[in-house]
Recover the amino acids of this structure.
């Protein structure tokens, strides 16, 4: 069985992914402690780490946004409904019967249609919600000076920040699991480490073989 | 070569310099030694004053001597609360001051004058006919003594002893009266000791009343009070309670709960109370952590910086139940019971006490408004304590901060027919005072009659509470409250409304929904994964 490999994830992209993973895990861990879910670092350190991780993620995103626009990679997130049904069918049925994966990654289309939708949801909904409320939190010291305290309450900001955090946690659980749902259980993970994705046999790995 | 020669010459020159400079310095020291010694703490050495030579056989005679130079002093004192024991609250027109208010400690001064007025800045207030206009009745020494020998004994109506006194009574230990001339000659500025002689002992004993003021503040270490630290900044009371014309600023009847004036600047008028934290530190005192300045918009400095009160080894009374007074020992005599720390927790004359050390304050929104339940005010017996005083404050009034409080709880006598609090005559070696005779009706009738207040003759007991804002015993910054003291489920600010605190104020339904959704997702992927494994094995 000669597997075909293609170079899907470039070096910066892989760095971005894993750095972001570390930061998001830190943010979730410290964030839920600050929220009062458990005691790990103690409130003061948890809040401190949370802020540092938040700023680091801001820095990382500045580079990531720059990279996406200069390389044109942003196009990877343009949504499509084509073959979404095939993906759903695959996850619901085909994956159990060893049916061929309906999507074949290429350099120009590295994410399957469901992935595209999910990531776009993260980018357009969860992230803005978490970012905007997070910025309000970070800038809380200036609310009074800037007159924001008349329009904002910490309670509302905290509410939406927490809602977004739960959504991010749910995304993370699903995302980590679905990394095992590639052509082989480890092909996605290997791709994000090495850059090279195993896309299946030349013959059977063709998209939507049926 | 050339270099080393230059260096050698430089060395010689420097050596000559040092020698000549040393000679000069020596000459200066010699000259200084020849100059007569001079006091630098004052422009006057009172021991050189002819008015203060000889002996004085009474306090008022010392005062007359003082007034022969300090012509305005007595009339300045006459204008102050320290003298009048009276304060008209301009906000609600309540006539307050020790002369009028009740508390839930020893209750009131009515008919207890000679004992209570041992803390009056005057001589001779033994009944309500005291002459408040007499200048020689002002006691200069009680505030300006620097020797520590001047003592006003309970029962002497503000006078010191003029004859040897057996102390404690019945001990046979005779204590000489203070030498008033010597004390007068060593007069000086007020000190922690002079203010503390009364203010540390409010409520009838060390630390009893305030909780944040007791004798441990006479010479505190840094941990007990960063400002008064006797080997550090060594503030006196007057460093913050900066006084002019004898009128000491800072008031428990009209406290400054929120000070938006910022740090005081010389020459600028109308800056308010100089005793607030902000009067020196301003409104944004945290240089490294700006977030703490945000906290300070709603939280009084004291809330974090006075983590506990009664911290110096002296216990404070937290509650006092007068209703149990009167139980006698097996021998039929008055008795006391003590706890493991040797604190009296029961006294036949006074009832049951609960004492506390290193007490975590209770916290309340507080805007500085305080109203009192005065003698004529109606009270209802109920399980909800009656406020001897009540504090104003809310998160929404724009002038409140969250303040630490000592809440003194008590059970005290009241008149169930007239529905008023009462002022019993307690102290005194007579046949009326409660502490000797243990008869409430007689004691209360006397105290009430003295005030011209009606008394039905019936006595019952009522639950009361009284608020004492905490402001002293400021800890060093590294001993201030840690975040988690408030930012936790078991928060010190539990129950305070109008605030959102991460780690404390989360919405329960959101948490339940969030964790359920996350758990459902996890369960979903686990089942999906398990199915995949099972299916692939089946092949």
């Amino acid at each position: 069985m000669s597997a075909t490999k293609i170079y899907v994830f470039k070096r910066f992209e892989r760095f971005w992914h894993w750095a972001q993973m570390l930061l998001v895990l830190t943010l979730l861990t410290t964030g839920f402690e600050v929220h009062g879910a458990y005691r790990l670092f103690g409130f003061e350190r948890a809040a401190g780490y949370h802020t540092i991780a938040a700023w680091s993620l801001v820095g990382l995103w500045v580079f990531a946004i720059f990279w996406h626009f200069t390389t044109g990679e942003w196009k990877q997130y343009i949504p499509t409904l084509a073959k979404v049904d095939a993906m759903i069918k695959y996850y619901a049925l085909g994956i159990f019967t060893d049916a061929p994966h309906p999507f074949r990654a290429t350099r120009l289309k590295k994410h399957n249609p469901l992935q595209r939708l999910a990531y776009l949801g993260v980018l357009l909904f969860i992230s803005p919600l978490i970012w905007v409320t997070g910025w309000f939190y970070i800038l809380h010291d200036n609310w009074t000076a800037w007159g924001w305290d008349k329009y904002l309450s910490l309670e509302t900001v905290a509410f939406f920040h927490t809602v977004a955090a739960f959504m991010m946690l749910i995304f993370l659980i699903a995302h980590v699991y679905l990394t095992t749902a590639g052509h082989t259980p480890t092909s996605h993970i290997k791709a994000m480490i090495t850059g090279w994705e195993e896309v299946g046999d030349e013959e059977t790995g063709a998209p939507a073989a049926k | 070569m050339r270099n080393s020669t230059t260096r050698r010459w430089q060395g010689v020159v420097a050596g000559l310099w040092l020698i000549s400079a040393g000679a000069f310095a020596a000459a200066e020291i010699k000259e200084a030694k020849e100059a007569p010694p001079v006091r630098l703490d004052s422009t006057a050495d009172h021991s050189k004053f002819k008015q203060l030579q000889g002996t004085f056989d009474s306090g008022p005679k010392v005062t007359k001597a003082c007034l022969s130079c300090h012509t305005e002093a007595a009339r300045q004192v006459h204008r102050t609360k320290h003298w009048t024991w009276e304060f008209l609250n301009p906000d609600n027109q309540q006539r307050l001051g020790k002369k009028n208010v009740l508390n839930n400690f020893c209750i009131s001064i009515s008919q207890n004058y000679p004992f209570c007025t041992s803390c009056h800045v005057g001589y001779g207030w033994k009944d309500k006919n005291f002459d408040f206009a007499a200048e020689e009745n002002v006691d200069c020494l009680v505030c300006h003594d620097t020797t520590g020998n001047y003592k006003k004994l309970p029962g002497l109506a503000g006078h010191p002893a003029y004859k040897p006194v057996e102390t404690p009574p019945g001990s046979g230990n005779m204590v000489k009266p203070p030498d008033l001339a010597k004390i007068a000659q060593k007069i000086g500025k007020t000190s922690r000791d002079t203010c503390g002689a009364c203010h540390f002992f409010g409520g009838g004993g060390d630390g009893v009343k305030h909780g944040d003021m007791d004798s441990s503040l006479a010479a505190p270490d840094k941990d007990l009070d960063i400002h008064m630290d006797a080997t550090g900044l060594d503030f006196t009371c007057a460093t913050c309670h900066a006084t002019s014309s004898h009128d000491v600023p800072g008031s428990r009847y009209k406290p400054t709960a929120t000070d938006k004036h910022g740090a005081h600047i010389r020459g600028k008028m109308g800056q308010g109370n100089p005793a607030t934290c902000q009067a020196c530190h301003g409104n944004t005192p945290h240089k490294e952590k700006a977030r703490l300045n945000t906290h300070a918009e709603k939280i009084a400095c004291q809330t974090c910086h006075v983590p506990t009160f009664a911290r110096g080894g002296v216990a404070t009374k937290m509650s006092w139940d007068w209703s149990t007074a009167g139980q006698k020992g097996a021998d039929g005599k008055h008795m006391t019971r003590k706890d493991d720390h040797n604190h009296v927790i029961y006294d036949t004359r006074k009832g049951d006490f609960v004492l506390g050390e290193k007490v975590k304050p209770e916290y309340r929104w507080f805007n500085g408004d305080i109203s009192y339940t005065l003698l004529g005010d109606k009270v209802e017996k109920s399980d909800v304590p009656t406020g001897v005083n009540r504090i104003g404050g809310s998160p929404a009034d724009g002038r409140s901060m969250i303040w630490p409080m000592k809440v003194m709880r008590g059970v005290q006598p009241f008149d169930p027919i007239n529905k008023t609090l009462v002022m019993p005559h307690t102290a005194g070696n007579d046949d009326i005072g409660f502490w000797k005779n243990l008869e409430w009706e007689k004691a209360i009738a006397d105290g009430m009659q003295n005030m011209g207040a009606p008394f039905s003759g019936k006595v019952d007991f009522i639950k009361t509470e009284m608020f004492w804002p905490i402001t002293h015993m400021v800890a060093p910054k590294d001993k201030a409250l840690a975040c988690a003291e408030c930012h936790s489920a078991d928060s010190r600010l539990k129950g305070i409304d109008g605030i959102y605190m991460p780690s404390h104020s989360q919405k329960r339904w959101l948490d339940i929904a969030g964790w359920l959704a996350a758990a459902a997702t996890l369960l979903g992927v686990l089942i999906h994964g398990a199915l995949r494994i099972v299916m692939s094995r089946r092949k």
Notes: The two ends of chain B are 96 Å apart (CA to CA).
